[in-house]
Amino acid sequence: MIRKLMLAVAALVAAMSMAFAQVDVNKADAAALDSVKGVGPTTSKLILEERTKGGEFKDWADFSKRVKGVGDKRAAKLSQAGLQVAGKSFDGAGAAKPPAAAGKPAPAAKPAPAPAKM
């Protein structure tokens, strides 16, 4: 019984370490790229073709420019899933959205209601 419990704990630890593994696009093969949530066979093929054709990716901007379908929004999601470019996560990953678009005023904050008198 203890043996089965220890085996289950070891399997859980191994699965968690794989879930949080960092994958660098400049070093990974197709299988490693496919293991990142959001990267499928088509995207991993595009990544490998671009890396072969143009050399290693310098940074996230270079990666987004060369790999079709990867913009800032998708780059942020891939980075959060563990993808790295040149050993670095996407700068905008997890960043808050900007307050308001340029030229548009920010919405006014509503005043808090006054406390009730007793």
Automatic annotation (TrEMBL):
Residues 93-118 are annotated as: Disordered. The keyword Transmembrane does not apply. Transmembrane segments: none annotated. It holds the Pfam family HHH_3. Residues 108-118 have a biased composition (Pro residues). The keyword Translocase does not apply. It comes from the Bacteria. Residues 93-107 have a biased composition (Low complexity). Keywords: Signal. Residues 1-21 form the signal peptide. PANTHER family: ENDONUCLEASE/EXONUCLEASE/PHOSPHATASE FAMILY DOMAIN-CONTAINING PROTEIN 1, ENDONUCLEASE_EXONUCLEASE_PHOSPHATASE FAMILY DOMAIN-CONTAINING PROTEIN 1. This is Helix-hairpin-helix domain-containing protein. The lineage of its organism: Bacteria, Pseudomonadati, Pseudomonadota, Betaproteobacteria, Burkholderiales.
